[in-house]
What does this fold into?
Amino acid sequence: MGADKDHDWMGRALELARRAWGQTHPNPMVGALIVEDGEVVAEGWHARDGGPHAERVALAKLGRPPRPGATLVVTLEPCSTPGRTGACCDAILAAGGITRVVIGATDPNPAHAGRGVEVLRAAGIEVVAGVRAAECAELNLIFNHWITLGRPLVAGKIATTRDGFSRPPPGADRWITGAAARENVHRWRRLFPAIAVGAGTVRADDPALTRRWRDEDGAEREDCGWRFVFDATLATAAGPETAWRRVYADRWRERTIVVTSAAADAATRARLEAAGVRVWAQETTRGAAGWGEFTRRCAAERISGVYVEGGAELLADARAAGALDYAFWYRAPKVGGEGWGGRVDWRFADGAVIERLGEDELTRGPLL
Ligand SMILES: NC(=O)c1ccc[n+]([C@@H]2O[C@H](COP(=O)([O-])OP(=O)(O)OC[C@H]3O[C@@H](n4cnc5c(N)ncnc54)[C@H](OP(=O)(O)O)[C@@H]3O)[C@@H](O)[C@H]2O)c1
It folds into this structure.
């Protein structure tokens, strides 16, 4: 069977995996398909945490044992331990018929990496591993971090002028980048289980922090992940409830968590909680101690990734604390000038991805 075919089938398996974009946390996105006599006869993907794995979905869709000589193509090494849904290696062997398995990425968990391949090979199956491995691994950048380190991937996002300014002068248009870049931000928002912003951004912009996108049929869609507001003094919730910012008052308010200091005003905190907003009171919200406590708490709640959308002050603190694992920097062609602020100057490690989005450019990857 040709490498070209494997490459194409893996491309299709990647498409299937992406159907669950942002829906599987803290599990990975995985796509799988079964090929008989060169034809794809069944497809599957992992749709949600706790649901059946992609290989099992594809086998179930087939609805009969695969024909002898069938190939299974899967974006992630099949699991070899029972977990909650049974080991996929066992399911592949029990189904019979499959004599060849094509794998994208190996299991990122060092305790399991390569074990699935071994189990399959020991059972006499031909295994081709590492097909489009980089794409398959990149698909699960949040899961890979979570499963190896046991804490969320904290990713910073900023949109700036060409010379790095993120805060427009008062009264100026708040949008720095164009429509394509903003749509791209929503795509990444949808991937991350949580978004975080600083108190300055809530005060200045009153952002909705929901995810908005268009379905394949063009219908407008909106949903909401966790929304963190870093506000050590609860100043963003001062004043009467009727004047509250959207994140405390809209229909998603139970998805808002304010990260504040233990010394913050108790009455304001009680009013927020009475409205359904959650409050995490920490010793401090700043520096390594603040981010350490925050990420530990996220881990305890199985929040595997946080997309920190700014502003520059919050991102600067996260960066200084060594808390930024990944970064998204959208740059517009315009230059800043009189009245602009919030300058960032991020340097990316080798291998950063650069994408053109209309007139703007996105660089993403880990920072130096
Ligand atoms: N271009 C972009 O991508 C982008 C993105 C977001 C915002 N913006 C713009 O940036 C401006 C707001 O940004 P900003 O830099 O002024 O404010 P910010 O970063 O949104 O918020 C800073 C405030 O958050 C609170 N905070 C709590 N914990 C913190 C921590 N660990 N580190 C830093 N701050 C913490 C602080 O207030 P307390 O000490 O009182 O808690 C601080 O004053 C707005 O104009 C907004 O439109 C631009």
About this structure: The mean pLDDT is 95.
